[in-house]
């Protein structure tokens, strides 16, 4: 049968109720997951236990271990990776100095996507044919995509990190999770059962494949959530924010899950507040990249401490680079786990600050990405500055998007229940004369970019 058989909504409803819910969770965590791990020749649970041991150590000890691992990673790259052999060898770089002087790291040139695309196989420590590997392509929402190759150990660590972070947010493997994924036009209905179905069962996970975020599409999403009743929902904040706005408009408030885990996009404070209040859930934030995996997470379960950088997975820096806007810094990472394609001082393109506290490293002041800079009448403006004007001087706006592909740029606006289109248009014109063509739309009309259909405040050519 196909996955759209009419029996499945009933089975979803049944699996979300007791005692089936508990039995399914126990079977997934203690039977199906170990079986799947053996079938796929993965070693995730051992690495999960290793993470628990690591983060029980005092931060001072973890920081010392991170510095040693940084030196080990650079030494390995210089020995095994042709690009780093040439680049670091030509400047006489000595990785042993990093063990006592972390400032020496600044001598390593920054790595960019352009360099990754240009160097290709010269960034690999061994030929791909020699060992199992996993190819990951960046999403394309931050410019031209590039290909990252993970070895088996790195892929297993990445999976363990997700399990560890969700455990810290209060979600065990016995509790169900739901993943939002984009439904593209023309996608065939998959048969059931499939390998993906067993994978989802082993992870106690289900998927929602959504299309349009209009009223009908949001009603369909809400009905599915009500049937399945997952503990944790994982998806883009813009999607769940659109759902929260729809539920607030149609029924005030509603509850279908305990935790929302945001990823893939920058989650703004206004989105977080609306999601938590309307959908009556805890909101946890995470920061990850296709190039490195999850690098920061609300390890306190979204209770206000902020995103903690995972010192077990890489070395994190924030730097004022040549094209960062005034007052902001770019996030730069060195990966620890991926020995097939180690990335040293990789420029993420994301803006934020690495802050050291007594209990760890934290990611703060995350405001967007380098290309979220909008030229207004020839003067560059950061997206968050435009958002502040729209929120506090224009008003009545629920969401916005600037499309730079038109001339002048198109400012798409979703009006909230208290907004007035004529007032918004006149205020925008008053602040930025002749800078935008204002277009009033619904959430479903906002442009999504990249192969994961991410929402961006700025759409570039």
Mean pLDDT: 89
- Kindly report the spatial arrangement of strands forming the biggest sheet: 4-3-5-6-7-8-9-13-12-11-10
Q: Which overall shape is indicated by the principal axes computed on the Cα atoms?
A: globular
Q: Could you name the CATH topology of the largest domain?
A: Rossmann fold
- Name of the top-level CATH class of the largest domain: Alpha Beta
Helix-strand makeup class: alpha/beta
Distance between the termini: 42 Å
Query: Fraction of residues in helices?
Result: 25-40%
The largest pleated sheet is described as: 11 strands, mixed
Low-pLDDT segments: none
Number of helices: 13
* Beta-strand content bin: 15-25%
Kindly report the name of the CATH homologous superfamily of the largest domain.
ANL, N-terminal domain
Keywords: Ligase
Protein name: Phenylacetate--CoA ligase family protein
Organism: Hydrogenophaga aromaticivorans
InterPro entries: ANL_N_sf, CapK_Type1_Caps_Biosynth
Structure description:
It comes from Hydrogenophaga aromaticivorans. Keywords: Ligase. One of its GO terms (molecular function) is ligase activity. This protein has 13 helices and 21 strands. The protein has an 11-stranded mixed β-sheet with strand order 4-3-5-6-7-8-9-13-12-11-10, sandwiched between helices. It has a 4-stranded mixed β-sheet with strand order 18-17-16-21, with helices on one face. It has a two-stranded antiparallel sheet with strand order 1-2. The chain has 2 domains: about 40-175 and about 230-365, ANL, N-terminal domain (Rossmann fold); about 375-460, ANL, C-terminal domain (GMP Synthetase, Chain A, domain 3, 2-Layer Sandwich). It has about 450 residues and is α/β, with parallel strands linked by helices.
